[in-house]
Amino acid sequence: MNRISAPKTRVVRIARPARAAQPGFFSLYWASGPARFGLVTFAAILLLVALGPVFVPFTPEQIDLSAKGQAPSLVHLMGTDELGRDVLARVLDGGRLTILVALIAVAVAIVVGVVVGAIAGYFGGWVDNVLMRIADVFYSMPALFVVILLVALIGPGFASIILAISAFSWMTTARLLRASILSLKKSDFVQAARGLGASDLRLIVAHILPNALAPIFVAATLGIASAVLTESALSFLGLGFQAPQATWGGLLEEAQRAVISGGQWWRGFFPGVMIFLVILSVNFIGEGLNKAILGRKEHRS
Fold first, then answer.
1. pTM, full prediction
2. Rounded distance between C-alpha atoms, residue 139 and residue 137, angstroms
3. Maximum Cα interatomic distance, the chain, rounded to a whole number of Å
4. pLDDT, averaged across the chain
5. Smaller CB count within 10 Å for the chain: N or C?
């Protein structure tokens, strides 16, 4: 008998279209020209003020009356002041202190803002109302005037300047984090963690905060620019660090008479350029971070 063989069936595999690779956060950031400029410039300034004094053959307080009031040259790249002190050495020394104060003040403000924003956003109700009204009170005050008043009352010093700057820098962080937490606390993953018995503290720290901190990094970069300006204004008004300690604002204050009466343009030009570059670069960094965060959200959706 002839066997009738069943027809062979062919398995046709349909190839699934490959998913387009999502661009990474850093690639989205690096795609922006201003963001690249800001990051490279700010990093270069940090390296310059941190390591520059090692390579400068003069100390910030080294007096040389035979070289006083000299214009920029190969020996003194940024010129000298009325006592023959090297302006480059003083700019680098002052920049290290100005940027350090700004970074610490912003870090303190971020911590306070995160705590206030997390509590207000998570618990809501009267707690939210009280904390946000306190933030409104701080917003309504003329910040620079009150900072000047605080420093004048407490006395100029490292701790008092940081306290005064950070006291009026936490509100934006608190509001941004509060808004993020209000939208996240009802998410499925938060409700699942709550159902598994997670405490309020664990829900905030382990589940909500890691997903709500992205806008905070943008606020932090912009806060650095504001802190640098505030510290420079205090030093310019004589309420910051006192002579002979150099800061960028203090160098601008010292340069007033020399520029107007003596024509020593370099005395105010170089500290002013450094302040300008720091503020410009951190603003570009903040803008780049914001674009990268929004770009990641668009690709995920």
1. 0.83
2. 5
3. 121
4. 84
5. N
Q: Give 213-230 as a DSSP string.
A: -HHHHHHHHHHHHHHHHH
Quick check: helix, strand or coil at residue 80?
A: strand
Q: Give per-residue pLDDT as tens, 148-192.
A: 888 888 887 888 889 989 988 899 889 988 988 888 888 888 788
Q: What is the dihedral of CA 106, 94, 240, 111, to 10 degrees?
A: 10
Looking at the domain assignment, is residue 63 inside a domain? Answer: yes
Of how many residues is the chain composed? 301
Query: Count of domains in the chain?
Result: 1
CA separation, residue 128 to residues 71, 108, 181, 253, 260 (Å): 58, 21, 12, 43, 53
Domain membership of residue 6 (yes or no) is no
pLDDT digits (tens, 9 = 90+) for 218-246: 888 888 999 999 989 888 888 888 777 88
Residue 38, amino acid:
G
Lowest mean pLDDT among 83-92, 144-153, 193-202: 193-202
Query: What is residue 158's three-state secondary structure?
Result: helix
> Containing domain of residue 278, as a range?
32-300
Cα 49 to chain centroid distance, Å, stands at 17
Phi-psi domain of 60 (left: phi exceeds 0; alpha: psi -120 through 50; beta: other): alpha
Helix axes 214-236, 143-154, angle to 10 degrees: 60
Give a yes or no: residue 95 inside a domain: yes
What residues contact 88, with CB distance under 8 A and at least 6 apart? 52, 56, 58, 76, 77, 78, 270
Would you say residue 140 lies in a domain? yes
Q: How far apart are CA 88 and CA 90, in angstroms?
A: 5
Which residues make beta-bridge pairs with 80? Answer: 86
Name the one residue in this structure whose structure tokens are 């020394």. Answer: 93
